[in-house]
# Entry
Amino acid sequence: MTSARQYGALLLGSFFCAGGAMAANIVTAPQGGIARWAGMAASECGIYGKRYPAVDAVCYYPVDMRGKPGTHEIALWDQDGKQHLGSLRAEKAEFPSVEMELPESLGRFLNPSPEEISRASAERGDIGKILGGSVDEHAQFSLPLGKPTATLPKSSDDFGSERVFNKEHKSLHSGRDYPVGPGNTVKAVADGTVVLAADHFYAGNSVYVDHGDGLVSMNFHLESIAVKAGDKVKRGQTLGKVGGTGRATGPHLHIGLRWLGKRIDPALLFDNPTTLPSVSDTHAEAERKIEKAEQREPDESDTPVDED
Ligand SMILES: [Zn+2]
# Structure
């Protein structure tokens, strides 16, 4: 189900007119960000050699939080099947390194037993099979996504950070932590199929939902799980309750998103998609979006601990 249809290598030369003047189909997005191509009545989109359906006639191009900076060819097929080409410049983002102390009660996460090490490794194998999502399936979501809890407080601003636990154990944080109290209901952010629901060593009780079009959402550290693998869920349907299971210093909701397997900042898809950098942006619009992104203030509150 993860088999992406391949399309042939795009010709870089087609970005340039015969006279050498650059075509305008260019967009820039940071690591962990998403670029957008609207206004062309898109039916399908292409990047990284994958071809996948548009979302509400708009193409989205995710950049992994550790994706190599550089230029990627992007494609858009309109409703008449005509292919349009462009380029996405992936730029390096600045991610903080965060020092954290785990209390003694969580010592097993610093020095796991051989059994726990093989357990975590088996779990990583299970997760690896589903993170690519079902690219051939049409999107079962619109943007923005639904909120995972009734009220979604400001998250800690540590998406993409490298966490150093007790000075030696490193872990990349590929999601966002929302300070939601224990027992609160966690809801599906869109329609989809539960592809994994299990108690994992690091992430605790975890629910992964495949929303089609290569988008997978994940919820970690739940107190309890209300669904099982194979269940079809509707946007807003209960997946479980907020908790602090696994490697967490306290209850909170960890949300992660993968799109085409890329680790992206979940907060971007809870916001109006027109705020994403777009191919059609004028120079002034692009400057304004970059400025806005830079003004995001870091949260001073204590950061809960978790895996991924
Ligand atoms: Zn987290």
